[in-house]
Amino acid sequence: MEQILADLFPRTEVPYPVILARMVGAILFGAVIGAEREYRDHAAGLRTHILVALAASVFALLALESVHMASFSDEQVRIDPLRVIEAVTSGVAFLAAGMIVFSRGEVRGLTTGAGMWLAGAVGLSVGLGYWFVGFFATLACFIVLFALGKIEQRYDTEKTQEDDKK
């Protein structure tokens, strides 16, 4: 039984409460980013952004821990945590690209795709322990999506009214 418990809870470089906090932080920051997309009823909304941020955080934590694993201490084994960042970046970019469509002469989903990409970056930040980077990126995203979204909406309404008068 001890061996099973040891396998379930191996020694970690980052303490388990910190790991949990980082994963919860990624969930919360991903929720903030996805909230606006959900509010506007886009296909990739709250849950998608949470999952992207959480997955990126988990990959970052695994990269940190893998560097310190005893089974990888052999000189022939080379661990490069930056490859995880590259993999997450390209994986999320692939998901985000799937959100972008060209329909009726209009590009749609670009902002949602960018939000997913940012959610991945925020998840990586928090997973690696860079809380301030993740927080500030989330705050900036919130301002861009909500505040600039309102300004853009107002501008589009005024433009439509001017076009109707012509």
Distance between the termini: 79 Å
Counting DSSP E segments of at least 2 residues, the number of strands comes to: 2
What structural class do the secondary elements suggest? mainly alpha
Low-confidence stretches: none
Q: Summarize the main sheet.
A: 2 strands, antiparallel
Radius of gyration: 20 Å
Number of helices: 6
Provide mean pLDDT, rounded.
Answer: 86
Shape: elongated
SSE series: HHHHEEHH
- The helical percent reads over 70%
- Strand fraction band? under 5%
| Strand adjacency order, main sheet | 1-2
Explain what this protein looks like in three dimensions.
The structure is a single chain. The protein is 75% helix and 4% strand. The chain is built from 6 helices and 2 strands, in the order H-H-H-H-E-E-H-H. It has helices at 2-8, 16-39, 46-67, 81-99, 110-127, 131-165, and strands at 101-103, 106-108. Strands 1-2 form a two-stranded antiparallel sheet. A hairpin with a 2-residue loop joins strand 1 and strand 2 (106-108). The N and C termini lie far apart (79 Å).
